[in-house]
Each structure stands twice: as structure tokens, then as C-alpha cells.
Design goal:
The complex is a heterodimer of chains A (311) and B (108). With 311 residues, chain A is α/β, with parallel strands linked by helices. Chain A has 6 helices and 17 strands. Chain A has 2 domains: 181 residues, 3-Layer(bba) Sandwich (FAD/NAD(P)-binding domain), CATH 3.50.50; 119 residues, FAD/NAD(P)-binding domain. Chain A is 23% helix and 28% strand. Chain B is globular. With 108 residues, chain B is of the alpha/beta class. Classes of the chains: A alpha/beta (311), B alpha/beta (108). Bound molecules: flavin-adenine dinucleotide (FAD).
């Protein structure tokens, strides 16, 4: 790994937003590094089959899509580094320093295209049984639950996608949802309602994950009636979305109360030279293609910004 | 030995439990995409820790018995064995430096 510490553009997160931004800035001959704390490709890399990314009429594997985006960004010279951004400082001359688990990176421009973490249930037993029946990735683990009983917690597109994938392997899938209707798109809703292996428990939340060495059951709570119930099973897949993990940006850029980054339609934050793109923006619709679009917009804004600075 | 070598239900006892050195076992499967991301990192680490830590990989599809024995329900899972006992469990992907930190803490 070239030990370069000074770049024109530092991008935080290698999901669709970050990889697209990196493709554009690298192609514009700006030296570009993309920092990724986990999996290149981002959330989409864990999706078995993506049906709504244009250009792939038969759908495309999410992991493959991420790999293709990575290749394309690297082809034009972007560097991708495994590191987690932990701080962002603005120097007196307006240059920025991105602090990471791999040391500091100095740059004129930062594009924040990540900074979220998977939401956890936050109930007793959850942490304890991670990898022993508690999972956050159906495409990784579904085949390990062949002919077993599993539950998926959540009600959005992601949760439904995970439940449908699990239904190909498990004996039965129980979808546990805290409301009395699904937020998911009509197409997915119809599919899940028509899948005989999937049952839905409405108005229900999880109180506790119980097991010995492996998960054995869930303690459930009906949010309307307060009734308690127990569900015997082998696995629980948590798919209740992502939560901004932007603590390190507090006091640097403007955040909404949940922690999403506020931008204008050029992807600029309130600080010149700091932009945000993708799911982490407060007004994002949270799709791979819109995240990629945000990334492209951010990169074009960056080009203008740097051109102006040079004048 | 530099690259992680495959082990299965039949060879696990000898290659892992009776090894004279600590062994890192990578529980993986071909369908697990994040596993594919971890593999090149482990290739490099196998090189770096050559002589100190053995690296092996176990396909949970073809060696389901061993995977079940250790309660593997999520992959990638990495287990480090010392003297036949698992001393460290790592579930999921993480950047190489973080992985090294955790491994080194157990190699002391
Ligand atoms: C199960 C599931 C199914 C989905 N299905 C579809 C679908 O069919 N179609 C569709 O269009 N969308 C789908 N989505 C949504 C889609 O994946 C996201 O909208 C998209 O990935 C957002 O891209 P992004 O680049 O903004 O963020 P992400 O994909 O979240 O990427 C951000 C990256 O930043 C990294 N990161 C975070 N913090 C840091 C840090 N501090 N330092 C370094 N790196 C960091 C993360 O590890 C991550 O890799 C699905 C999502 C899920 C979970």
C-alpha cells in the first residue's frame, strides 16, 4: 500500500455513493482515496439480488454490483483503503484532516458517503448470541438455517427481502413487525403475503433473546395489548435499518436530530469543502441508484469548488 | 505454509485440535460474499504470521458437522484454537489492522 497521506479528495465509505463519487473525482484527475470500515460495496453488497438498478434487466447480485463499482473507480485511479474514519478537523487554511484507524489523511475536500451502523434491537441476549443464532445478514447465513425455524425483525424493504431469501432455506419464517402494516413497496408486500412459509406477527416487538449455547426462543411483546408470548426458534435476523453514526461529525457539520447530515441539492453541507452523499443525507430516499446519483452530484460539485478555488 | 489450507470434518482433529501451534480457522462457504472479502486478508496474514499461527479454512457446507459442533450460525466466523480449545471468536468482516489487533492480543 502506497503510504500517501495527502489527497485532493477523501471519501468516507465505499458503498454506491462513495464508489460513484470516487469514480467521478478520479476520472476528473483528482487524487482520490475511499475509506471503508467494513465491506466494499456497502449495504448493497449483502443483497442477494438487486432488481431495480438500471442497466441490469435481469437483476444483478449486490456483491457483484459492488465489485463492478470498485473496479470502475480503481480503473480511473481511486485508491480504496480499509480504515474507519473517526474524526474530521478543519485546519486554519481550510484544509481538512480525516482521522482514521489507519492514521490521518489530509485533503482539500471530504465527501461523507458512509457513517452509519446497523441498528440493533438493544434487548438482553442480542449481543451475547451474535453468530450463535442472532444475525444481521440473511444472504450470509440463510443456508445455515436449512429446515430450521427463524424470525426476521423489521417491516421495510430490507426486512422483506431478507425474509423472502430465508424462506428458500428455512422451514418457517416469522416476520416480527412492530406496526400493523408493512412499509415495504407493493411488489415486495405482495410477495411476502403470498409466501406460504412466511407468517407475520403484527404489533410485536422483541423483549429478549433466550438461549443456551445457541438461540432457543424469543420473548415477545404485543405493543397494543401488552400480551406476552414466547416463540421457539433457531435463528433471528435483525433488519431494522441503519442509524447514523455521525458522533465524530458533531460540531463540524450540520446534522438533523437523528444524526443524518443536512445538505443542499449540490450535496454541500454548511462547511465549504465538506459534502455528503447517499443514505447518510437526511433527505435521501435510500436506494442504491439514488446513492450513486448523489455521489456523482457531489463529485461534480467538488470539481467546480476546486476550479473556483484555483482562480 | 503460507496460504490457508483447507481442513474438513475428517482432518479437523489432527490439523486443528492436535496442532502444536495456535490455529486460526476460517469458517466460510462459497455463497457467503463477505467471506470472499475476508479471504485475501487471511492470505496476507497467513504470510505475516508464518511460523507463529497456522491458518486453515473450513467449508461449512461440506463440513457441517464441525461447524455445528462449534455452533457456527453466522459466517464468516474466525476461531483461534490454542491447545485444542477455542480462545477467540470473531464474527463478521473487519479491516485488517483491527483483525491483527485482536489476533495479536491472543498470541501473547
Ligand atoms: C437487505 C437490503 C436490501 C436492499 N435492497 C435494495 C434494492 O433492491 N435496491 C436498492 O436500490 N437498494 C436496496 N437497498 C438499499 C441500498 O443498499 C442502500 O440505499 C445503498 O447501499 C446506500 O448506499 P450508500 O453508499 O449511501 O451507503 P452504504 O451502502 O451504507 O455504504 C456506506 C459505507 O460506508 C462505510 N462506513 C460507514 N461509516 C464509516 C466510517 N466511519 N469510516 C469508513 N467507512 C464507513 C460502511 O461500512 C459502508 O460500506 C437494500 C438494503 C438492504 C439492507
Amino acid at each position: 500500500m502506497a503510504d500517501q497521506r495527502n489527497y485532493d479528495v477523501v471519501i468516507i465509505g465505499a458503498g454506491p455513493a462513495g464508489l460513484t463519487a470516487g469514480l467521478y473525482t478520479a476520472r476528473a484527475k483528482l487524487s482520490t482515496v475511499v475509506l471503508e470500515k467494513e465491506l466494499v460495496g456497502g449495504q448493497i453488497a449483502n443483497v442477494e439480488h438487486v432488481e431495480n438498478f438500471p442497466g441490469f434487466p435481469d437483476g444483478v447480485g449486490g456483491y457483484e454490483l459492488g465489485q463492478l463499482m470498485q473496479q470502475q473507480a480503481e480503473k480511473f485511479g481511486a485508491t480504496i483503503i480499509g480504515a474507519e474514519a473517526t474524526g474530521l478537523e478543519i485546519k486554519e487554511d481550510n484544509r481538512k484532516v480525516v482521522k482514521t484507524t489507519q492514521g490521518d489523511f489530509e485533503t482539500g475536500v471530504v465527501i461523507i458517503a458512509g457513517a452509519a451502523t446497523r441498528k440493533k434491537l438493544g434487548v438482553p441476549g442480542e449481543e451475547e448470541f451474535i453468530g450463535r443464532g442472532v444475525s444481521y445478514c440473511a444472504t450470509c447465513d440463510a443456508p445455515l438455517f436449512q429446515d430450521k425455524m427463524v424470525a426476521v425483525v423489521g417491516g421495510g424493504d430490507a426486512a422483506i427481502t431478507e425474509a423472502l431469501h430465508l424462506a428458500k432455506f428455512a422451514a418457517k419464517v416469522t416476520l416480527i413487525h412492530r406496526r400493523d402494516e408493512l412499509r415495504a413497496t407493493v411488489l415486495l408486500r405482495d410477495r411476502v403475503l403470498g409466501e406460504p412459509k412466511i407468517d407475520i406477527l403484527w404489533d410485536t416487538t422483541v423483549d429478549e433473546v433466550v438461549g443456551e449455547t445457541l438461540v432457543k426462543r424469543l420473548k415477545l411483546n404485543n405493543v397494543k395489548t401488552g400480551a406476552k408470548a414466547v416463540l421457539e426458534l433457531d435463528g433471528i435476523f435483525v433488519s431494522i435499518g441503519f442509524m447514523p453514526d455521525t458522533g465524530f461529525l458533531k460540531g463540524v457539520v450540520h446534522l438533523d436530530p437523528i444524526g443524518h447530515i443536512i445538505t443542499n441539492d449540490k450535496m454541500e453541507t454548511d462547511v465549504p469543502g465538506i459534502l455528503a452523499a447517499g443514505d447518510i443525507r437526511n433527505s435521501s430516499v435510500r436506494q442504491a441508484i439514488t446513492a450513486a446519483g448523489d455521489g456523482a452530484t457531489a463529485a461534480v460539485t467538488v470539481e467546480h469548488f476546486l476550479n473556483e478555488q484555483q482562480k | 505454509m503460507s496460504k490457508p489450507t483447507p481442513v474438513d470434518d475428517a482432518t479437523f482433529e489432527k490439523e486443528v485440535l492436535q496442532a502444536d501451534k495456535p490455529v486460526l480457522v476460517d469458517f466460510w462457504a462459497a455463497w457467503c460474499k463477505p467471506c470472499l472479502m475476508v479471504a485475501p486478508i487471511l492470505d496476507e496474514l497467513a504470510e505475516e504470521y508464518d511460523g507463529k499461527l497456522n491458518f486453515v479454512k473450513l467449508d461449512v457446507d461440506s463440513s457441517a458437522r464441525t461447524a455445528a459442533n462449534y455452533g457456527i450460525m453466522s459466517i464468516p466466523t474466525l476461531l483461534i484454537f490454542k491447545g485444542g480449545e477455542p480462545v477467540l471468536t470473531i464474527v463478521g468482516t473487519m479491516p485488517k489492522p483491527e483483525l491483527k489487533k485482536r489476533i495479536e492480543a491472543k498470541l501473547e
